[in-house]
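Lecture notes, structural biology module. Today: joint structure prediction for complexes of two components.
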Amino acid sequence: MTPPSYILPLCVALPLGGAFVTALLGRKFPALAPLLATVVAAILLGISLLSVKLLLQHGVVVYTVGGWPPPVGISMVLDGLTAFMLVTINLVVFLVVIFCLDYVNQFTARWNFYVLFLMTLAGMNGVIVTGDLFNLFVFLEVAAVASYGLVAFGTEKHALEAAFKYAVMGSVGSLCILLGIAVLYASTSTLNMADMARVLAMSKPGALTTFVTVLFLMGFGMKAAVVPFHAWLPDAHSSAPAPISAMLSGVLIKALGVYALCRVIFNVLGASPRILGVLLFIGALSMVVGVFLAIGQWDLKRLLAFHSISQIGYVILGIGLGTPLGIMGGLFHLLNHSLFKSLLFLDSGVIEYATGTRDLKAMGGLRAKLPLTGATTLAASMSIAGIPPFNGFWSKLLIIVAAVQAERYGYAFWAVLASVLTLASFMKVMRYAFFGQLNSRWNSVTEAPFFMKLSLVAFAVLCVFGGLLLLPQAREAFLGLASEAITNGTEYVNMAVTQAR
Amino acid sequence: MIAYMLCLVLFCLGVYGALAKRNVIKIVLGLAIAECAVNLMFVLIAYRVHGSAPILPRVAEGGAPVMVDPLPHALVLTAIVIGLATTALMVALAMRIYQQYGTYDISEIRELKG
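The predicted structure, tokenised, for the full assembly:
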């Protein structure tokens, strides 16, 4: 029986089609846009869960676009890492769409919002499923350009400024990636990632490979907002509408940055100890710098955005360790971060929706008026700070244990330190926003509408029970296969090429 | 070789313009220059000395003639379209910024910091 590989192109085609239909009919039928977006997101969540089952049954699945066999044609590849990322992205996006149903009512031209939203989703899914390096660039740009538009969606002064900054930095990053692809094509004469890895493995690594690695590190680093390239993130993520911040911080920087970086460095170029050393260093740097910058912030969303930099540092650190346990920890933290950071941004959205402010000093005692928001924020804060039994604790524990096992005691120390500082800064958030005396300005504040609450509760439940993924069976099926895909490195080649024949 | 180097110099000039200039329009132009440099790089990679157009009516005696590589040309077309979208969006943003702030100077557009 041939595996039903046609579900892979659906991951891109459904949201793109949805965006097209919404753009066409959204103005005439205002109820269509949110309905269509929800249905598409729900189907995609189903498809991504199905892809895990498919992977367990058939191993690596390859879809050849137009029936052209690779390396000539474009292929879409489903391996452990792809399935893992698909589930992460589509789960978060589905819950964010539910949140949007109520939240977007405050904007005019709502259908435009959903068009851009679905385009971003199509771009992210495309980056994840494609097996072709140039295709990866195209989808990356689709997602990036749509997200520039989404950041500026409010068209307020600061949103425009942030979007421009984001667009400039993002474009420079994209150009670095494109230049890297050009050089890599010149030396390998192929664009299929698996075939590229095969050709590169046969030749000796030279100065050209180093040059390409640096270009990719810069480009994807810019997209992932690791520390030397992080300047755009706090502006862009804090100025966007709350559900968009949740999506950008939750999944976009991971799909475009971390996933693409891992795929190119581990599966195509092959990870040398030197590259791993660089990854470890920038990971630790972002982790510590991010948290130090976060702790002094008084704007709630800005504080959360700086924590995104810090937590991405954990992910990169775990993956940079290069040991199976470290990579598993890094990926698990990627999943967990997308859950709790999205939840935190949605909570900040509820606060802004109810009170109209993001300034921590102006809040106070909101727990009395927004009990559910307070409870879910508490859950997410505990997760991000790494308090057991929340999911963030388990992934941080894995990373720190892996660092100690690899005898990188210094990095383990920095990871613990950053975790303590994260706890401190979230104690500040809870203290100023939710506990203490109710600020009399907020006497008439009411809790969020139904769909927003539904989404918050779903995220909070996932945060509490996320640690269960470490149970042996779930671990083997999900995280294990994903980290195997990275540790196997250039083995990816054989699977992706031979499968298609 | 010198052509590749000049291409990289052009790229660096563009990126320098984007990152060091203070005028919003000049930043957009800098990015456009850098993008042209990358597109030029693709075309250079496709170039073969004495290459003909990549059309093969029938296989000639003694193997195929030297032809330019057609694939990068297709890639450049895609890259140009993407670049157009990015540039259009950034120019639109620049217009809205001018409406809101009344200036194109980024040192005066500083609502966000910290």
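Point to remember: Chain A is about 75% helix and 0% strand.
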